[in-house]
Write a structure and sequence with these properties.
By secondary structure, the chain is mainly α. It has a two-stranded antiparallel sheet. Helix 1 crosses helix 3. The chain starts with a strand and ends in an 18-residue tail after the last helix.
């Protein structure tokens, strides 16, 4: 996850929405819709419904949540590298951050 802009809807004609990637991911995490951020080929691979597939999806969602937390606009909320590593490894639960400044969306 980075702070750069990307074109979310370039194929929709002249109306192009550009936003900050971390803000988009944050909105997906908060809405519980992290699947939207996953690559479609990954979704095909994990759609088998077995335990291993469910585990892969949970790991990817955890990584996304940790990335959003590490890129939080409020520095005091960001985890340390050690804590982030523990979260990525699944040793520590990823905390739910309830507040975030208004997304820096560009229209």
């Amino acid at each position: 996850l980075g702070g750069g802009d990307f074109d979310l809807n370039a194929s929709k004609g002249s109306l192009v929405r550009t936003l900050v990637l971390t803000d988009w991911c944050w909105s997906l995490v908060k809405a519980g819709n992290m699947e939207e951020a996953l690559d479609s080929s990954l979704l095909r691979e994990i759609s088998g419904g077995d335990k291993a597939s469910a585990n892969v999806k949970a790991v990817v969602e955890r990584f996304l949540a940790v990335g959003v937390l590490c890129a939080h606009a409020m520095v005091s909320v960001r985890p340390t590298i050690l804590d982030a590593n523990k979260m990525l490894e699944g040793d520590v639960e990823v905390p739910i951050v309830s507040k975030r400044p208004t997304p820096r969306m560009k229209n």
